[in-house]
Write a structure and sequence with these properties.
- With 353 residues, this protein is α/β, with parallel strands linked by helices.
- It has a domain at 6-192 and 228-255 and 300-317: NAD(P)-binding Rossmann-like Domain (Rossmann fold, 3-Layer(aba) Sandwich), CATH 3.40.50.720.
- The protein contains 12 helices and 12 strands.
- It has helices at residues 16-28, 68-78, 92-97, 99-121, 160-179, 201-210, 230-243, 260-275, 304-310, 318-331, 333-341, 347-352; strands at residues 6-11, 32-38, 58-62, 82-85, 129-135, 183-188, 190-192, 215-218, 224-229, 249-252, 257-259, 286-289.
- A 7-stranded parallel β-sheet has the order 3-2-1-4-5-6-10, with helices on both faces. Strands 7-9-11 form a 3-stranded mixed β-sheet.
- The chain is globular and about 65 Å long.
Length: 353
């Protein structure tokens, strides 16, 4: 008989957000067996969770969520009673150049997991849950003074990435309605914090400032995003997983709207202070470039539902979180160098081969 009260599958747990969720669950729930499934694409980095890899309640599984037979085998082997599905291709720029890989992972991969959960759990769905982690980008774009995205906002995705995530959201709801599969969905705003892959804005610019490289800003930098500290997101996922209602959607936002250019100027100021550089030296690296194709103007989340119904709200405001994030990258430049050099991709071979 298992010593664990639950066995939870977390997909994409070697990625940025996923690694924080895995760490949170492994440390908070020692009586849960946490299985981290990741195919280890370029964005998967097992060094993100090196600190918990030897915990008794943690197992890493290298596998592809689009492989139907492999997923069937794993569900039977581990008897998962909960799934937290974070595995996804997520970089908008990359989706413009490689859209089919986003469709494969985000749409087909989600469909495979839903189908296998349905088959494995059968009629006995008591205590079972499929939690799909999505994005606010499925709602499209807001004007500057237009208000907020709500859980009832119609979907209007504008990029191959957001379209693929919208498709997967629809599949999750269809399995809930048609097959009575217990599900919850969350749509979150832009995450930032430690361990983020440096193709994303904040870690990219931190690295570029360290190396005194140009800071490329799309258009005029007026696009607005709501920023959520990744550890707050992990707590929100925990809250929804345990307390969310079957079939419901919850928006997770940071209440931190910033234009790109204001964010970058704040980042430059903080970096100058922390690196002991002359004021304004980092801001001088800003270079305005041609705007991204189909660049959404503004995302803004209304997160009152999760606050009112489940009692979650963000604990970290943006300036504090950004300062913490910069400190982490400055203190972990070895991690950053391993990622930018590609050395991190050898860690799996060294540790698990």
């Amino acid at each position: 008989m298992s010593k664990f009260v639950r066995t939870i599958l977390i997909t994409g747990g070697a990625g940025f957000i996923g690694s924080h969720v895995v760490r949170h669950f492994v440390k908070k729930y020692p009586d849960y067996h946490i299985c981290n499934l990741d195919v280890l694409t370029y964005a998967g980095n097992l060094m993100n969770i090196k600190d918990i890899e030897n915990n008794d309640n943690y197992t890493f599984i290298k596998a592809d969520i689009t492989d139907l037979e492999e997923m069937r085998t794993l569900f039977k082997q581990y008897n998962f009673d909960g799934v937290i599905h974070l595995a996804a291709e997520s970089h908008v720029d990359r989706s413009i150049t490689e859209p089919l890989s986003f469709v494969k992972t985000n749409v087909l991969g989600t469909a495979v997991l839903l189908q296998v959960a349905k088959e494995t759990w059968g009629e006995d769905k008591q205590g079972k849950l499929f939690y799909h982690v999505s994005t606010d980008e499925v709602y499209g774009s807001l004007e500057l003074e237009q208000g907020f995205f709500y859980e009832t906002t119609p979907y209007d995705p504008k990029s191959p990435y957001s379209a693929s995530k919208a498709s997967s959201d629809h599949l999750v709801r269809a399995y809930n309605h048609t097959f009575k599969l217990p599900v919850v969905i969350s749509n979150c705003s832009n995450n930032y914090g430690p361990y983020q892959f440096p193709e994303k804005l904040i870690p990219l610019f931190i690295n570029n400032i360290i190396e005194k490289k140009a800071l490329p800003v799309y258009g005029k930098g007026i696009n607005v995003r709501d920023w959520l500290y990744v550890k707050d997101h992990a707590v929100a996922i925990d809250t929804i997983f345990h307390e969310g209602k079957d079939g419901e959607t919850y928006n997770i936002g940071g209440h931190n709207e910033w234009t790109n250019i204001d964010l970058i100027r704040l980042l430059c100021r903080l970096m100058d202070e922390k690196l002991g550089r002359e004021k304004g030296s980092s801001e001088a690296l800003i270079t305005f470039v041609k705007d991204r194709s189909g660049h959404d103007l503004r995302y803004a989340i209304d997160a009152s539902k999760i606050d009112d119904e489940l009692g979650w709200k963000p604990s970290i405001q943006f300036e504090e979180g950004l300062s913490k994030t910069i400190d982490w990258y400055l203190e972990n430049q070895g991690w950053l160098q391993n990622v930018t050099s590609g050395e991190y991709q050898n860690y799996y071979k060294k540790q698990y081969s």
